[in-house]
TrEMBL record:
SUPFAM superfamilies: GST C-terminal domain-like, Thioredoxin-like. Residues 1-90 form the GST N-terminal domain. CDD domains: GST_C_Sigma_like. This is Glutathione S-transferase. Residues 99-228 form the GST C-terminal domain. Gene3D superfamilies: 1.20.1050.10, Glutaredoxin. InterPro entries: Glutathione-S-Trfase_C-like (IPR010987), Glutathione-S-Trfase_C_sf (IPR036282), Glutathione_S-Trfase_N (IPR004045), GST_C (IPR004046), GST_superfamily (IPR050213), Thioredoxin-like_sf (IPR036249). It comes from the Bacteria. Signal peptide: none annotated. Pfam families: GST_C_3 (PF14497).
């Protein structure tokens, strides 16, 4: 099946978690909004589906995935669908639910990362809420981020398969998502991560293992991998990383 991924064309954002899975699996997919405005592709195609007049199951926001007649929204939901089909999810029902639970926890963390620079409203510029962002980021780097990283470090250590992965005995989409989180946090909060990484060596090693996988390494070195920037989820404002 050829999958169609719909996400904003100029940022990594939440769509990157889906891209990593598709790239690692070697799946046949198109990043619709990044294509020229022809043959039903491009940003206009994303906006047309987002308008939803032709759909019963209308997505609230990108990312969403078109797989045949299915249109699936929400990052964790997309990964729940793709993971088993592309060999990047546990084979047991219990394992799949555990992977999904971890992915939802990652979604919570991603939301808190976003709110460090937009704690009041996404519709406002960062400069319009800078005092609030400073307070939010201080609590995040001191309290919330250590708690999240400590939790995932514990999950990896207590995986009964002792595989070095978060779930089961082989790589899953949850490991790809944790790779993206670590990479993004290193960009957004380099000083904080330098302080915290000695306390989570398992996650550091997991990031290193994922980055070395041949398909992922090729993707990360290609122009398909958009750079981090101050327009996405992971933004580097030095004043927030004191």
């Amino acid at each position: 099946m050829r999958y169609e991924l719909y996400y904003w064309p100029s940022i990594q954002g939440r769509g990157e978690f889906v891209r990593l899975l598709l790239e690692e699996a070697g799946a046949d997919y198109v990043d619709v909004a990044r294509l020229p405005e022809e043959n039903g592709m491009g940003l206009a195609a994303l906006l047309r589906l987002l308008g939803g007049e032709s759909l019963e199951h209308v997505p609230f926001a990108p990312p969403f995935l078109k797989a045949g007649d299915l249109v699936i929204g929400q990052t964790a939901n997309i990964l729940l669908y793709l993971g088993p089909r592309l060999g990047l999810a546990p084979k047991t029902e219990a394992g799949r639910h555990w992977a999904h639970q971890l992915q939802l926890t990652i979604a919570d963390l991603v939301g808190e990362i976003h709110d460090t620079h937009h704690p009041i409203a996404s519709s406002l510029y960062y400069e319009d809420q800078k005092p609030e962002a400073l307070r939010r980021a201080k609590d995040f780097t001191k309290n919330r981020l250590p708690k999240f990283l400590g939790y995932f470090e514990q999950v990896r250590a207590q995986n009964s398969f002792r595989s070095g992965y978060l779930v089961g005995d082989t790589l899953s989409y949850v490991d790809l998502s944790m790779f993206q989180v670590v990479a993004g946090l290193r960009y957004a909060f380099p000083r904080t991560m330098a302080r915290l990484e000695p306390g989570c060596p398992g996650l550091v090693e997991l990031h290193r293992r994922v980055a070395r996988r041949p398909r992922l390494a090729a993707y990360l070195a290609s122009d398909r991998r958009l750079p981090f920037s101050e327009e996405g989820i992971f933004r580097h404002y030095p004043e927030l990383d004191r």
